[in-house]
From TrEMBL:
It comes from Actinacidiphila rubida. Zn(2+) binds at residues 140, 144, 215. The gene is htpX. This is Protease HtpX homolog. One of its GO terms (cellular component) is plasma membrane. Its main location: membrane. Binds 1 zinc ion per subunit. It is an enzyme of class 3 (hydrolase). GO terms for biological process: proteolysis. The keyword Zinc applies. Coiled coil: none annotated. It is a multi-pass membrane protein. The keyword Endoplasmic reticulum does not apply.
Amino acid sequence: MRSRFAPDRQLTVRMVTVIFLLGLVYVAFVAALVALLKSVALVVVIVAAALVAQYWFSDRIALFAMHAHEVTAEEQPALHGTVDRLCALSDMPKPRVAVSELDLPNAFATGRNADHAVLCVTTGLLRRLEPGELEGVLAHELSHVAHKDVAVITIASFLGVLAGLLVRFAFYSELFGGRRNDQNTAALLAVILAVSALVYILSFLLLRALSRYRELAADRSAALLTGRPSELASALVKVSGSIARIPTEDLRTAQSFNAFFFTPALNDESTLATLFSTHPSLQRRLDALGKLSTELGLPS
């Protein structure tokens, strides 16, 4: 089913390109390991099974990790009401709604498709935002589901684990394989580590580039759907300012979910850090929303 969220062909092209390139990189990586080690079939099967499990149960894994639980309309009537309106407006299935008992103001959506998605907000976000601002954030997260980039990011993020697992398997199979005194073994391990480092770097850069663009695409689609870019911009400013006052220890706990959050838990606005961040800078997002307000003839 196609939703009324504004389609983004550039996002689609980028997602297909990233998955294709990552697939090529990892196929080549596995092929190289098979050639070097003669057999890595078992670990490939295990990793493939883990990938399927993460893709299939990504929503449950995320809720567990974020200490979140699903809530009913009776428990959170205002939150459910906003989600209901946005789903009706965008003509998409309503996701399950969850709340995380964290003071960190944030939100995320996950799930393998629109019919198996979950939308989660923290109590910190609910306390800090006005209804219009919250609607903008929820529309942003729903657009991720509509654009299917949630599933793509889930798969692409997991692929980064593949190199590490395969290298660890290769290292220990060689280390304890009875050839510890063979000089060729040391050279072989050096080659494997070098190749895996290259694979990790390529995967990291591809995933970060896709992640930054998808956030801009979600901002634009959400603002177009609600017709109020200024509310989303206000939410961005408010959430970013609030995060700066959250204890660093709490932020580091949630940092592993940065790629899925509305705004990053920890964010360095320096030029170099921005190149490797999961999200565009706050100023870039605000500028894009301001430009959209101008295009729509609205006050920015």
